[in-house]
Structures are given as structure tokens and as C-alpha cells.
Queue: 3 jobs
Job 1
Amino acid sequence: MTGRGRRAYSPDIGTHEHDDARRGRAAARKREGTVAVEFLERTRTEEFGEKMGMVLNHAALALMTSIGHRTGLFDTMAALPPSTTGEIAAAAGLSERYVREWLGAMVTGGIVEYDERRGTYALPPEHAAWLTRQASPQNVAPAMQWIGVLGGVETQVVEAFRHGRGVPYVAYNRFHEVMAEESAQTVVAALVDHIVPFVPELGERLEAGIDVLDVGCGSAGALIRLAEAFPNSRFTGYDFSEEAIGAARYQAARRGLRNVRLQVVDAAEIEDEAAFDLVTTFDAVHDQADPARVLRNIKRALRPDGVYLMQDIGVSSHLAHNHAHPVAPFIYTISTMHCMSVSLARDGAGLGAAWGKEKALEMLADAGFAVEAVDALPHDPFNLYFIVRHGRVN
């Protein structure tokens, strides 16, 4: 009985011991899993903290790069051998104390090289290739100016988040100046060699003499370049900004151009009918208060055999498709703080800079256009160029 009792009881003891061991192992795995999860969460938290530190440093470097561009320091340093702060300041005609502090940001940011023993600073040629005026069109320094321009309206944009209206164009200090400099690199410099040849037979027509309208022309850098290159054609520029048109008229007069007409006109109020063989917009449609009406006006202003050439930012209308875009955060930022906001300030649609290819095609179709081609050009991978015509393209 005792033996049988022990044998009968032993399995119970074994079962309990097995259960205890199993529970112990499960508890250990749970603890290990908890530790692993905590480690993973801690690692991700630390990595994100490091990322935000980099964001702060990069934002600061963007401001300092803008200053280096505006003061001519990059251009000066590119032409100098390794030099002291005093030598750099003297060559640039600037305050040594300010130059010295600016160089501190440039050195620690990895843009300028510093020889501690000699006390000299140098801008490496491979960095100058991205930061000097001579490096255009790949000079990225002009784009850094947007950080300061947008920062100047931050308080107004914060207020707009609450009331839902926008910030008007007049609030943006230096907007037209910076826009003209950016356009000079991506559009103006490439017009004759890259953009005009994109449209079949356009060069020949411009040589022979046609009527051209640039809508939202700003300071009219593109229009003036075309007028110089194709003196037999006639060029009209419309923009609602008196400041921009004033600057454009000055530049046209300074060049002695007699085939250019510049007027203060809201694109939504264009009344021309079948008056132009070519209509262009460069980075202009998405800012409009009533972009749908603007596109209809452009169609009406275009002659039946004419062509509309639209350049706009090369993104998708769908956020999920823009993850891989190299400057997507910048595009959404400038949209929030300018493009969308200036449209909303005029009770507009607020399309924004990221309205995208799909929305653009939809709106062009709604306006009665037929899109012949859409493509990025080799000189300008961040924008799309649309060749658009009346009626149906076979």
C-alpha cells in the first residue's frame, strides 16, 4: 500500500514539479521579453533623441549657410588659400568678430576645414561645388534662405493654425528676391537649352515670332530671358504683386527690351481670349486662391493651336507615396508656411505645394485641357513639366 501509494503519488509530485518548472521558464521568458521590449523601446527613444539633435544642428547650419551665401563668404573663401579669420574678413569686407563666430558653426558642422596649428580655415573644393554662385545651377545655398524667410512669419502662421485663415504675401520679407534667385537656377538658366526643347517645335515657333504669356511671372526672370533669346516673339507677364512687377519692369528696361509687356493682373481675373500661342506657369498654380479658375482662364487665353507649359513641384498627391522624396519635409513645410497659407489668406482653395501630379492632371482635365506629356527634366529632378494643349491628344 505504501509503495503503491508512493507510486500513485509520485506522478502527482512529478506533475507539480513539471508545472512549477514550466511556470518558472514562462516567467523567465516573460522577464526576458520585457527586458528586450524595454531595451528596444529605450534604443528607439535614444535614436529618436539623437535624430532631433541632428535636426536642430542642421536647422542652425541652414541659417548659417544662408548667411554665408548672402554675405558672399562662400564665394570669398572658394578663391582663397587656407586663411585666418582676419584675412577672410578683410577679403570679404566684413567684421572679423562675426566671421570668426560664423566659422565656428561652419567648422563644427563639417562645412569648413580648420587647421588648429596654423589657425587657418579652408572651404574644400568639393564643398564649394555646392555652395558658391559659380557652382550654379547646383548651388544649394540660395535655398537655405527660405528658412529665414519662413521663420519671419512663424508667429502669424501659428495664429493661422487657430483661426484657419492664411498669411498674406506682404508679410513675407524678401520672398520675391529669394524666389527670383531660386528660379534663376532651376528655370531661367535652363530655358533655352532644356525647357524650350522639351516642347516639340517650340524653339522654331519662338524664333519665327509668337505671342507668349507668363502667368504669375513674379520678377519675370524667365520671361526676360526668353525675350532676349527670341526677339521676334512678343512676351507678356502677369502677376498680382506690384512689388514683383516693379522689379520686372526695371530689369526689362535696363536690358532695353521692347518686346516685353508687364502688368499687375490677378491670374483669376485674366480676360484675354485666344490671344497667346504659348502660356507658361513656373511654380505658380498651387499658390493661387482659385487655381481652377486660373486654369480655365489660361485655356481661354490660349489660341486653338497653342500650348500651355506648366512647371510645378514633382510630388504625388498621396502622402504615402512621398516618403522616399529627398526633400519632402521641406516641401510640406514651405507649403504650410507659405504656399497654402497665402492662398487661404485670400479665401482660396489652399492647394499647397504638395498638391501633386495626380491632382494637377485632374484639374487640367476639368479645365478642358489634354495633357500631351509630363516629365522631370535632367537639369531639374525636383519639378515636373507638363505639355498641355486644347482638345484631345491622339
Job 2
Amino acid sequence: MQRYHFPCKPIVAAKSSALVGAWATVVIVSVLALSAVPACAQVTWRMTSEYPRNNISGIGLLTFSRLVAARTDGFVTTATAFDNELKITSSEMPRAAQDGRIAGGDAFAGALTDFDAVFGLPTLPFVVQSIEVARAVNTRARPLYEKALQAQGLKLLYLTIWPATGLWTDRPFDGAGDLRQLSVRTYDNSSAEVMRAAAASAKFLPITEAIAALRDHSLNAFLTSGDGGAGRKLWDYLPYFTPINYAMPVSLAFVRIEAFAALPDATQKQVMAAAAETGQSQFDLLANRTAENYARMRANGVTIAEPAAGPLIAALRRAATDPIAAWRAKAAPDAIEIVDWAIRQ
């Protein structure tokens, strides 16, 4: 939702004076505008995230908020709801933006695959195995994300690459056979298929629903990064973490095209400059994020099984074959080319 605040200051004509005759009679003419014309206006974008302000998604939105206000001299500001305060999940954000309930937000890409298969690219299992490849993949994929969002009436601002995905569990892993004991929350349908193919019970759930399922003990495992788990304090329920390097997902920050297009051209450039700076800041944050998360996790009693057991990784890789093939069947050729490139690295 946009809020426009008028007016700022009325426009007043300058005073003039003239000397008339030898006695220097002063004539002062003052002209006031009959109606106040706004000299400035403020646009506030209401944005949302499923995640807390202290996780990597939340940090990105806070950074963008600060930078866009600075670059536009307060012309554009954001009001962001964190931790799913608005009860709008990532998969629901495009519709919420279209309906005007929000101007934009930061959505987990894997939850958007019903709109376009390209959003499932960054969560494909065991395709991206390093920060460098993750950046290259998403640089190549960015035009595809932009096009897919544009089809929903949305403009991509920046993207955030998350630390590598692992498994949070209530028990340690002794081997691939332990997967049968897990009831896992996954972050998209593809990862749910992988975990089920590996003999676990698995379900894709929005984060708030998944936390509720942890509390009632219907779940005993989470597929998410150390960042996602630390932000949610999963150690209260799941004190073991196995870094399986499943994927390096992304979240996408966007705004409704209509809201962006309403800005003056110069302001649009300032907004996108703030977005580009935010994207770079998010990538810079990634370099030390895993180490920082691990330190925080260990300080809260989490046992990190590093490296993950070879048989476990082998079982998950085998289970990933069919979901990757299913994604290829739905994806566009240019998206498939990016994945093929990543696998060769």
C-alpha cells in the first residue's frame, strides 16, 4: 500500500521593493499563491517477510529501507513487517501485492514455483556447491527471475543468497538409514520429494506452520540453513545440525510495478541504486555468515556433524534424481542451460 502525504510547503512569491521619487517611498509588493502547491511528497511502501529481522532476509530489507531513504532524501521509505506479522507467506506475496495489501516484500524463491519453474532453480538439490557458483548462477538467472516476476506485475529489486542448506534434527545421524525416523519440514515441493524418496516423511510448510508442528511434535526435523534455523532458535527443539550442502537458495525482494512506475524517473534510478547496493551488501554478508551461525548454534548447545556422513549424502543425491528430472521437464531451455553449467563446475 502507498501513502502520499501532501502538502509540504506553499509556494510564495518573492518580495520586491522600489524607490519612488525623492522621498524614497518604499512600495512592498507581496503575492501569495491562491492555493498551496506541494513542494515535496513522501511515498511509503509497505513490505513484508516471513522471517525475523535478524536473519539474512530481514537484514536485507532493513538495509534496503535505510539505503532507499538515504538515496531519495526521504522521498521513498518502507514500512516492513517481519516474522510473518501480516500472515502473508512467500507463496502468497505476489497476490497480496497485486491486491494492494502490500507494495512488495522478500519472498523465498522456492515457494514461488507455482508461478514459474525458474523460481525452483536455486533450490535444486546438489547443483550449487559453493558461494562463487551460487553468485554466478544467480547472475545468469536474474533476467529470468525478472521476467517471471514481471508476469505477476512485480519488479525485482535485489536477491539474497542464503547459506547452504542442512538438516536440523532432534537426534544425531549414524547413517542413511536414520532418514526413516525423520518427519521433515522442507522449504519447497521439490525438497519434499527428495526427502520422501530418501525414505523420510516430508512436507513443504510455511515457516510459521512448521514451527507450530515442532511444538506439537508432529515434526522432528527441518531442512533449512544454519541462518534460517538460528534466526528461529530451532535449537530449542532440534539440537543437531548436519550440513549436507543441499542447496544455496535465494529470496527475492520486489515491489509492485505500478508502485515503482508512479515514481519520477530520477527517483526510480535512486531506488534501483539502493537495491543494487543492498544486493552487494547481502552477498558480502554471506562470506562469514555460516561461521557466525555455527558459532551461535554451538553457543546454544547445537551439535554440528561436520562433515556429513558419506552414505547419507550419497542416499540424498540418489533421491534427487527424479525431482531434478521433473523440474527439467517444466523449465525453459535457458534455465536448464544455467543448471547444466552449474553442474559442470
Job 3
Amino acid sequence: MASQSAASPPAAGPSAASHPAAQPGRKRSEQSRLAILTAAYELVGEIGYARLTVEGIAARAGTGKQTIYRWWPSKADVVLDALATKADLDIPIPDEGSYAADLRAFLLASFALGNQSTLIGILRALMAQAQIDPEFWQRFREAFLQRRRDALGVITGRAKARGDLPPGLSTGTVADIVFGVIWYRVLATRELPGAALADELVTALAGPHPRLQQAP
């Protein structure tokens, strides 16, 4: 699947009606939703999350701030929707024929998206917001964290079904390791993950990747 530009969220995404942050009321149009998400994502990249306002998002999107508040409870939820939509489309669930290959493709796509400076800022800001707002934490967990785990769970579940998943680690622990490493890099070391880390995680979780093994 082609990667979207770092300057704006993808041009399509999950149904607005199914999103946890969606508010009751008049049905929102997908065109308006995407204009708002694009505006929020662009503004975070330009001015940072701390200076982002609902008024600024509305002005950039060409809509009223009451429209935004009718569909999302806060600016954090607008940015969360943009993040979740972008991740859903930019990180495919590959089927390369083996657990190791699927896992590596998933990691490389995740790292490529996570290495974008705008998205890193969003991840840090939303995690910080989640620590001080329990209600937002619940929405963040459901709309982004759990959805990323579920995506990886498709890969590990498929591997388990075909007898390709190494014994010793549950699928939940695999997800803890993968996303624990990602969040540690994002929040603690600020060292950007890349292909070398993907290969190390594949080796740790699936055994040596065939192309990484040394010739006898």
C-alpha cells in the first residue's frame, strides 16, 4: 500500500460513526471530517500541539468550531482521529507467507510512519494528555493503542493458525514487546527506529530471518 504524505493525513479512513470519539448529533460528512483532520495534522506540524486550538483547526478547515465540538470532545480527540486514520491506512497488515516476513513488513511500515517528525510530536502529546485525563486515556487506548495491537494480532494469529508462531510467547506478550520498544524509543531515548531494529525484533520474536542468516 502506498504511503501517504507526511504533510497531511490519508484521504480516507475508518467510518466516522464507528469512531469512539464521535459525538451524537447530525451525521457528519466524510469530506468535512477529512478536511478537519487534515487541518489538525498540518497545524500540529507547523505550530506544535501546545499552540493548536480548535479555532485554528476550524479556520484552516473552513468550518465552524461548533461543528468540531459537535463531532469531537476536544482538540486532542481531533488529533487522535487523524493519527488513528493515518496509521490504519499507512501500516498494512501484510501476508508475505511467513511470520518472520509478515512481522518485518509490519515493523518497517510502523517505523517509517513513526519516524515522521509531525507524527512523533503527536504521539508524545497524546500520551502526555492521556496521563492527566482518564476519559481521554480510555479513548486513546481504544481508538489507537488497541487498534494497533489488533492489527499486529492478525499477523500473530495467522502465524499461530498455520503453525508458524514460535512457542514460548503469547500473542499479547509479542505485542507488549513490539509496542513497548516503539514507545520507549519515542518517549525515552528519542532514537528513531529503523530497519536494523526491525531485524533485531524479528530475530528475537520469530527466529533469524532467512536473508539475515550468514551463509555457511
